[in-house]
Design goal:
The complex is a heterodimer of chains A (437) and B (72). Chain A is of the alpha/beta class. In chain A, 43% of the residues lie in helices and 14% in strands. Chain B has 72 residues and is mainly alpha-helical. Chain B has a domain at 26-72. In chain B, helix 1 runs antiparallel to helix 2. Chain B is elongated, with a radius of gyration of 16 Å. The chains are: A alpha/beta (437), B mainly alpha (72). The A-B interface holds A 10, 12-13, 16-17, 19-20, 23, 54, 76-77, 97-101 and B 15-16, 19-20, 22-28, 30-31, 34, 47, 50, 54.
């Protein structure tokens, strides 16, 4: 049982909430103004505060103190500003009206578990060593990570392919100052029929092939972070399941009945325009807003003025240590790198630097760049070799062969560019060879 | 056409009131569900009454906003 003070000037709401929470055996008092709440808090002790941000005589934030009870913010007008201001106090949750009973119960349970939602970031770990850049866009990104990282709020990272959204997710997790796990999952890489089992786990015998119980990613992460990369690829039916988990804070394994509490924080990322996906009916609007609690946009490399030389030098020095290649660029090469618009962003720059390092092996500096570095293949524009009706397997084969060709047969670079392991690449190439035989 | 400050203030207030009404409807629906489990028809009727009243409130808000936009 928790002793709760509910501060809101809407008496219909406070009275209904009081009745609902009393039925759950919580002791609930209600007041309607900052002044009344201040008086009650001075006289009585509470475990928790449920407080509306917008009160007749001021902001509910005035009632949240470091030495006071844990607080849940309630607002009808969510904004990043209020969310950020809110998480600086003893805030365990941030709820947006209209509310339901499950949200209230989940918040009370979070507080009872003493879940460390307000953690002090370790500044040295917020910015990973490989997050390079001094541009205004990069500084703004680091600021967002510093502010959003220590919260438990859901974050949606957007940005073009190759901008490093995965690094941002890792940095947000690191900023929590927690030893809990960071569990990344690429939603686009899981076979459609296995998505539910992968995310939520399954019970033994729940479907053909489920020979043993399996714990899903959300359970495995415990109090850590689940990073849902390429969230835009999540099938619609699983979007419903994810929404349910986010709303109720609990999940059920495939083939199971028991509700399992979900204590992990969710960070999602996409390179798609999710608003457009919503308008086209490919992504659920309610899930979009659930994920958009705190949005972070990672700028493309062409908008990060001054960062290209810093990144290029960083990658070059890294390869020099690993492969004994040159560790500096000639000024002309750096100028060329800076003047290119990098549609493939940091990932493309990294691959170009590696190819340049190999090309200039034995020299004291990199003074030439690969011939076609600024003319990447326009597969997406003219879809060379692709036609409607091709099987996925044939498309994959074409893509692998073209990428291999682009990287002059270098399998390591090809695997990196395609986002698959070297082992997978070799397996595919063996399969194609067998097909030919 | 961009809204003037007065119209913006009206819309802001309308959204605030609408949100409160929806919040109240949501919580009363939760109460009705709880009373249904307890077979308490009288209290279910009371919760539904408040829901109806809040729906009427929403209707007034949407009509006043509609009038404002038409006048504009």
């Amino acid at each position: 049982m928790a002793r709760i003070l509910l501060v809101d000037d809407d008496t219909d709401f406070t009275s209904a909430t009081q009745t609902l929470l009393r039925a759950e055996e919580h002791d609930v008092s209600t007041v309607g103004t900052v002044a009344e709440a201040t008086g009650v808090l001075r006289r009585e002790a509470f475990d928790m505060l449920f407080v509306d941000l917008s009160l007749p005589d001021g902001s509910g934030l005035e009632l949240i103190r470091d030495d006071g009870p844990k607080a849940v913010i309630i607002t009808g007008h969510p904004s990043i500003e209020t969310a950020i201001r809110a998480v600086r106090g003893r805030v365990v949750d941030y709820l947006v009206k209209p509310l339901d009973k499950n949200q209230l119960i989940k918040s009370i349970e979070s507080a009872a578990l003493d879940k460390p939602t307000r953690r002090i970031p370790r500044i040295d770990t917020i910015r990973p060593a490989n997050m390079i850049g001094e541009s205004a866009a990069m500084k703004s990104l680091i600021k967002s990570i510093t502010e959003y990282g220590p919260t438990d709020l859901t974050i949606l990272i957007t940005g073009e392919s190759g901008t490093g959204k995965d690094l941002v997710a890792q940095a947000l997790h690191n900023a929590c100052n927690t030893d809990a796990k960071f569990v990344p999952v690429n939603c686009g890489a899981i076979p459609r029929e296995l998505v539910a089992s992968e995310l939520f786990g399954h019970e033994k015998g729940s479907f053909t092939g489920a020979g043993a119980k399996r714990v899903g990613i959300f359970e495995r992460a415990k109090n850590g972070t689940v990073f849902l990369d390429e969230i835009g690829e999540l099938p619609l039916d699983q979007q419903v399941a994810l929404l349910r988990v986010l709303e109720t804070g609990s999940m059920v394994r495939v083939g199971g009945e028991k509700e399992i509490p979900m204590t992990a924080r969710i960070i999602a990322a996409t390179n798609k325009d999710l608003e457009k996906e919503v308008s086209e009916g490919k992504f659920r609007e309610d899930l979009f807003f659930r994920l958009m609690v705190l949005p972070i946009h990672v700028a493309p490399l062409r908008e990060r003025e001054g960062d290209i030389p810093l990144l290029a030098n960083y990658f070059l020095e890294m390869y020099a240590k690993e492969h004994g290649t040159p560790s500096r660029f000639s000024p002309q090469v750096l100028t060329k790198l800076e003047s290119y618009h990098w549609p493939g962003n940091v990932r493309e720059l990294k691959h170009t630097v590696l190819r340049a390092a190999i090309l200039n092996r034995g020299k004291d500096k990199v003074d030439t760049l690969p011939d076609n570095f600024d003319r990447p293949p326009k597969w997406s524009d003219d879809a060379q070799g692709l036609r409607a009706g091709m099987s996925i397997r044939d498309v994959e084969k074409t893509l692998i062969e073209k990428t291999l060709d682009h990287f002059d047969g270098n399998k390591k670079l090809t695997a990196e560019a395609l986002g698959i392991s070297l082992k997978t690449l070799y397996n595919r190439l063996c399969e194609y060879e067998e097909d030919r035989v | 056409m961009p809204l003037n400050d007065l119209e913006k203030a009206h819309l802001k207030e309308a959204l605030h009131k609408m949100n409160n009404a929806l919040n109240s409807i949501s919580m009363q629906a939760e109460l009705a569900r709880m009373y249904a489990q307890q077979d308490d028809n009288e209290m279910i009727g009371e919760a539904l009454g408040i829901i109806m009243s809040q729906c009427r409130q929403c209707s007034v808000i949407t009509q006043s906003t509609h009038t404002l936009l038409q006048d504009d």
